[in-house]
Design a protein that fits this description.
mainly alpha
Length: 198
């Protein structure tokens, strides 16, 4: 009996990994409203969100491990129900559905994994821990930086997003990073690296 349970856990873990791959193909829907046809994927958003989350966690002296888990798995449910932009969310009660999908996705994973991911999801939803607030800030900050980049590529409507979203940033570090990002040429880092030296 134990062997059957173990095989099932491995199979479920492999299914979970495969399902995460769906996020590489799924485009973030909100950018389509701005006319961006080749928008970032959910996986691309989640990756940089995790990078930002790690940076913020270090700056805010919080558990980078917990923040990384929250940011990496925050949009996992979208592999099944896609990314719904704010207009769609106006008509659909998404929070309960997203949680239902996520808990079904992690069901039957090895018990330690399942418990950890369920706990992380609940903490993120409740927004009471330092790590959950940082993870939410990372999500918002990633969207803000992406909007600035799209604006720099000629999608001027992306500027509308940058007007409201900064007011939702809660941590000092996220607000400071955004303050710097909005007045900085975000291409500077690679322009300097590509300058020829004689």
């Amino acid at each position: 009996m134990k062997k059957a349970v173990k095989v099932r856990s491995f199979k479920k873990a492999l299914d979970f990994i495969s399902e995460a791959g769906m996020l590489k193909q799924l485009k973030r829907s909100g950018w389509s409203v701005l006319g961006i046809k080749d928008a970032e994927s959910v996986a691309e958003h989640s990756f940089r969100c995790a990078v930002i989350g790690y940076v913020l966690a270090c700056m805010e002296k919080a558990s980078s491990y917990k923040v990384l888990l929250m940011t990496l798995f925050n949009d996992m449910h979208e592999a099944r129900i896609t990314d719904l932009h704010k207009m769609a969310q106006r008509y659909i009660e998404v929070e309960g559905v997203e949680d239902k999908v996520f808990y079904e996705q992690v069901n039957f994973l090895p018990s330690q994994m399942e418990k950890e991911l369920r706990d992380i999801r609940k903490a993120y939803r409740n927004q009471k821990t330092k790590e959950s607030i940082i993870a939410r800030d990372a999500d918002i900050l990633e969207c803000l930086i992406q909007a600035k980049e799209y604006q720099g590529h000629g999608f001027l409507e992306a500027g509308k997003f940058m007007k409201k979203a900064p007011f939702f940033l809660m941590t000092r570090s996220a607000r400071r990073l955004w303050g710097l990002a909005k007045k900085t040429d975000l291409n500077q880092w690679w322009v300097k690296l590509s300058e020829f030296k004689r």
